[in-house]
Hints:
It is a single chain. Strand 6 (223-224) and strand 7 (227-228) form a beta hairpin. Helix content is 43%, strand content 7%. It is mainly alpha-helical and 231 residues long. The two termini are 27 Å apart. It has a 3-stranded antiparallel β-sheet with strand order 2-4-3. Strands 1-5 form a two-stranded parallel sheet. Strands 6-7 form a two-stranded antiparallel sheet. The chain has 7 helices and 7 strands, in the order E-H-H-E-H-H-E-E-E-H-H-H-E-E. The chain has a single domain (23-129, 164-223), classed as Winged helix-like DNA-binding domain superfamily/Winged helix DNA-binding domain (Arc Repressor Mutant, subunit A, Orthogonal Bundle).
Amino acid sequence: MTSPDVDDTGSDARGPAGSGPDARDDARDLDLATLKALSHPLRVRLWDLLVTAGPATSTTLARQTGESTGSTSYHLRQLAAHGLVDELPERGTGRERWWQAAPGALRVRGNGGEYETPSGGEVVRAFGSQWASLRAGSLERFHERVIDRVEPESWVDASVDATSFAYLTLEELDALSTELGAVLEKYAGAARSRDDRPSDQHRRIEVQVLAFPTIDPAVEGHAVGGRAADA
């Protein structure tokens, strides 16, 4: 799951990693063992902090999560063992180790192979729930800043929070997802090439992209993908 969203076809957890007609093709598909390691509540929070806020030490992450440094250090090493985070030895000093999220997009396949087991399904469900909660929390904090009038009005006006519903074919949905990914890549791709904040005029922007089928009450019980929709 520009950076994960979990559905039948998979989820992109870091956002499109490459350029081209469909950046989703460049995502790394996580195996069940790696997803299980990431699904630990503290590990997914640590990984999310490294994705959203950039490199950090275990001490900084401990302060942000309310955990001990020993705990964050252990779980960072577990994430590193699965290729989800990398150490930055050039930034380390003595016993202080710096970590960053491994570059590239991650994708969670919710079907096929090892995921077609009760335990596999539970791992996907656990990770999807935690990821959705993190993203919802991020949006809620933005709304709170707007309500409390601590977010500059100019940045609020430039932001977008929109939901739309439409009847689309499978081909149209795929085209929509590809086009949204291309727009995201246009801006996020350039930003990933920068090591640091370019100037005081730049702010870190979170872009959440979701497009997925829903159950239409008007056709409840109609066959979906060869199976009857649940009532």
